[in-house]
User: What shape does this take?
Amino acid sequence: MSNSYNMKEFSSTAVITDHGIYPSTISISTINTKCKEDDLEMNVYDPFRNRKLEHPNSDVRSFANLLKSSLGSGILAMPAAFKNAGTVVGIFGTIILGYICTHCVYLLVKTSQDVSRVTKVPSLGYAETVEAVFATGPQPLRKISKASRIFIDWAMAFTILGACAVYVILLVQSVKQIVDYFYGEGVIDEKMYFLMFLLPILLFTQIKNLKYIAPFSGFANVLLVLTFLICLYYICGEFPSIDDRPMSVDIGSLPLFIGTVIFAMEGIGVVLPVENTMAKPQHFLGCPGVLNITMTVVVLLYMIMGFLGYVRYGDEAYGSITLNLDTGEFPALTAKVFIILAIFFTYILQFYVPMEIVWRNTKNHVAQKYHNIGQIIMRAFFATLTVAAAAVLPRLDQVIGLEGAFFYSFLGLIAPSVMDLTFRWERGLGKFKWILIKDVVLVVFGTFVLIAGVTQSIREIIRTNS
Assistant: This one.
């Protein structure tokens, strides 16, 4: 995760720090939400010049932060994605989905920048951008602006909590493989593994100060890189013929491929924090731009890992390629231990984000004297919820597809397109209304991914558990 910021408004400027991880919590009621017909203020107010950054990030560091958010453990799931597409369809599908995801991220950032000019604030987070767009959009939609922010807040929280449940599954499956190898299969019931992880998760998720959590992020990143290199060593060590794998598979599996790729590739929650903390935010978009360079690297790495991993393991590819490695070999065992530690620390860091969101939306309903106990109960409840969800749906590849189709298709594809369309509705939709057509197509595609992906994932879950 990249550094984010807290925002406190001073007239038309903001002080942004990197002590927090969640985007600004600025209230839309404190900014200008009047929508002038010609939006002349867009040409007068420059949000970039009004940002006061304590520690602005260079283009290179912003590239690294964005790459880190998109290039996580999801890359290890790409071979499993390719088995639902085939070699050729997988390659071109990854490229196409990468382009679509990149364009939707572009829409989110561009809309956030434009609505910041209209509302005269230096920067906005994801949920605040949604609220500002509706508050300055067509008149009938303005009354739901606050509700839209709350909805996106909770959608973001449950999206990340869903990812945390995926991490728990990977933790359990990795530990189970090691225990089964050394002590024999079935020596510990699979459900007991989830209970074993519940205690350390409950303890570590009670850490409320980010400065005690953040150092683990760097350690986890190093372990992920080492795991990735070990996986490449095994993948390229015994490489079968490409002709042994089909170029395409049953079209009914395609929604699972799409859901997995979107889950692995999307870092939608961290995009605006990266842009908002740049020393030169105008370099984020455009050509080449930080966004385009980052996503080009991401797509290439995901495509290579997916293709090589699928050719090597075929239909036997698991939801994480580390699970395919032979536990009896020292490098493979090392990779499994590395991924266990990396994913555990990633879980703790990721868990911080939804807790900030949930607490922000609930603390006003809790008496001040109960705030401490309230946070303890809240964190324990949601940590237990992620472990319980993982125990109910223990197949990693299926849950990744379900998570990607349900949550990331909405936040990464549908919501940015709706925001762009809403913001531009009264400001011009381009020649022949091409913006309207494009955004509607993206919304339809996102809806298809959501419905078809969720349906197919549920069918697979029922089939394998019946």
Notes: DSSP finds 15 helices and three strands in the chain.
